[in-house]
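> tool_call: predict_assembly(chains=two)
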Amino acid sequence: GQNIDQPTEMTATEGAIVQINCTYQTSGFNGLFWYQQHAGEAPTFLSYNVLDGLEEKGRFSSFLSRSKGYSYLLLKELQMKDSASYLCAVITGGGNKLTFGTGTQLKVEL
Amino acid sequence: GAVVSQHPSWVICKSGTSVKIECRSLDFQATTMFWYRQFPKQSLMLMATSNEGSKATYEQGVEKDKFLINHASLTLSTLTVTSAHPEDSSFYICSARVPLGLAVSYEQYFGPGTRLTVT
């Protein structure tokens, strides 16, 4: 089966840095996505990792270690609008399935 | 960029009735679309994979006779919730795999979702 774990909730301060971890055990792996989802809205794409290492895009960075089944999303210079749910998702099934983790609800406080 | 729309954005129906939700790819052709369900404070759960011109592939535990999927064209997939019950109340989200060249490999673009409430 597929198992993708994330912390349920996190709280951080505006302007700070927060790291959201994701561990996975899946049958097959074609890459890992991070999505941001605000309440009542569809997920929006943040990053994609298929090779080991760090991908940086503005205030957001994502890291992947395939041998450890581990990824993290790093958010810098936190803003209030970053308060949302962050979903880790793994592509499996020959590229045809996106399996989502449990999601991490991030709350950014003043 | 690739845009996926859903209609309606929200719907309230009575128990026992059927509801149809449409998912459209607006500026690209999608041979494969996906239907997800999301309960409050939970993550997205894949219900089925919709393939243009063929039968949908349902995930384990999803009743194919209750959740009818039709993918009649390269830009439209529909999900019909038949004989809806209050426990079917949820947020239904569709997505389409973006053709290579428009985005990174395997990326899916999501529709805005449909909030279904069954009374």
